[in-house]
Amino acid sequence: MIGIPMRAPTTDGTSVPDLPPVDAGRALRQALGRFATGVTVVTTRAPDDSFVGLTANSFSALSLEPPLISWALRLASASLAVFQQSPRFVVNVLTEDQVEVSRLFASRGASRFDQVAHAENVHGLPYLHGAAAWFACRQVSWQVAGDHCLFIAEVEDHRHSDAAPLLFHAGGYHALGPRL
After folding, report:
1. 27-50, pLDDT tens digit by residue?
2. By Cβ atoms counted within 10 A, which residue in 19, 70, 98, 126 is the most buried?
3. What is the DSSP letter of 11?
4. Angle, vertex CA 127, rays to CA 126 and CA 128, nearest 5
């Protein structure tokens, strides 16, 4: 749809002049950015026994019966193979106070787990201290969808606090705000 002029309707039935062509990819990214999401760090253990974690805002509840969640990871991610091979992972829902944790796990820096308080669950997987919630999951399936890999997992255990979650909207971090 690149370069196709769009006409915006007006209240009197006429239309505004043709708009200049837009970069369809950028326009789609901006439109999708209007949907506010929570921010998570998904963690697991690699075959070499090291911890692996990354920031993801594609997390979603999928089903209550059975308890399923989903999230997606770019195919270009260096961690993709680890998550595809891992039978389990933990989704940590970040709080408003964990913006720097999100940035840390979105970076390519080494030894990220040395910089955050964490513990291991019964499966030896890392979960982050101070998270608004965490979900220990068993991977059910994954499939390639476009330029991402979609993971579906069953929730085996979970915990939550009353802490306000960190939100991502229009390319930036936001606080939850008052209930309407």
Report:
1. 888 888 888 899 999 999 999 999
2. 98
3. T
4. 120
